[in-house]
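Side project, low priority. Logging it here so it doesn't get lost.
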Amino acid sequence: MFHQVYDPIAGSVVLSAVVAAGPLLVLALLLAVRRSPPWQAALAGAGAAFALSWLAWGMPLPLTVAATAHGMAFGLWPISWVVVSAVFFYNLSVASGDFDVIRRSLSRLTGDGRIQVLLVAFCFGALIEGIAGFGAPVAITASMLAGLGFEPIRAAVLALVANTAPVAFGSLGIPVTTLGALLAPLLERDVESTTRALSAMVGRQLPIFSILVPAYLVVLLAGWRRMMGVLPAVAVAGVSFGVVQFAVSNFVGPELTDTLAALASMAAVALLLRVWQPREPFAGHLAPAPAPTDAPGGGQDAWPRVARAFATYAILVLVVLVGQVGNFRAVRALGPPADVTALLRCGQQGNTTCPRPWVGRTALESPQGFRFPVWEFPWPGAYRLEAGRPVPIIVREPPTVPVSSPYPLTFRLDFLASAGTLVLAAAVVAFVPMMTFGVPMRTFPAAFGRTMRQLRVPVVTIACILSIATLMNASGMTSSMALALAATGWLFPFFSAFLGMLGVFLTGSDTSSNTLFGPLQATTAKVLGLDPVLTAATNSSGGVMGKMISPQNLSVGAAGVGAVGSEGEIFRRVIGHSLLLTALMGLLALLQAYVVPGIVPRL
């Protein structure tokens, strides 16, 4: 058995926490200082985590190898699978021409720069974030705004600031689902109920900012007085997005939150513009030079073509929604959330009357109706057999838990229920009408091949980042850092937001930030007697405010408007907004922790 130790360095928790931060410091130095490629930084960080887990925290070498392999496997499935499918769907819509049709239809709705920012940067950017994520929204919306005549640097700034509220549910909710899978064993709950609770909590934080961001964008563009001139559009865009974001994240799940909220917001603003227009159109957004001749609003599409383009995304929503309903029933039918831990403890005690756990555990049918098959099994090398039953090798110790408790490393295969599989199915369904209207068959494999070429390096990065998180959690390094952070006391919820922002600044990804700091946030909260769901969710919600200042996103924004080399100027323009919005998120977390604690979902 491996019993976690939290002060292996000179018997000091503080010194141990400093050393435990080594893999994160390696990431920070290589990404922010040396500007190394993300995959190289992630690989170096994984190497540092491996060495410290084995040599400093005393994890047996076979167990260290097993934890590394588990993290990489989790990075490949289901995380990278979801990313690949989401980006493939987006690439397919571009290759079929549907994406350009939607882009042109949005730009023709109004010539007022304030409303164009709402439609393009906020609404359409959120739709792209919900489907593809990973830098695509900033690149696309910044270039669209520049094509509409916005000054390039201003276009990049607006696109970066707009890419905040939707990020936590980006790429079909992968930041939240990743966080749920990592926190489940720490909280001794099943993955599904943990993910749903986190989704609900983030959905009780970000909608407030979703309502504020449209007004913030317009004030940034045109000032307070001119923002009041389009207040109806600002209110409709923000409120419709925030309400749907809250409802879907709390009652459906994280996968479709951004997509449905973005579609609702676009539709609401489009309907408003049919009965209302601003009295004084604003053209102060136009750059001194004339707009490019290939501006996105230059074409004219018949309404059947526009309807067909939007129908592609409607198919995505329907297929994923139907699939998630089946998945939701499957998990609920598996039993109460504590089943996993109860089985493990039962086996650890050598009780031969324990129910048969894990191996071949599937869900094929139930009184609740059809449900997808799910296989969950112990990760090889992280368990030993006692009386023919698997028992976790890793044991967590007080004060991170009330009593010594097993730390299960399990792997879940839910191929048909995975969001990535559902998106791929939606792509197949959507491609049938595309072919009917003249899109050649070769477009499908060509788009998939392009996607794989795009993501071959990011997939390696994701796998390495997840291995860092798994090693730090399993060895006790995360707990060492958490015990030191507990010194912040009752102010910790406020600093949770800044910790999340720091993670996104370093990695450029809310998913990666949740991977690195989510378990740390939850463990610190447990030590302080706070709700770990709140602080872990705040890591994700606060993290989105760091998206606009991450080096990767700055580069994407500058490239999108043809201003490579202007990243420093863009950074200076957005850093203040990032710090202000993060501080507001920290204050909200404090209120939710101490003034309205009942708002936190209970596991």
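Brief comment: The CA atoms of residues 232 and 276 lie 9 Å apart.
Revisit when time allows.
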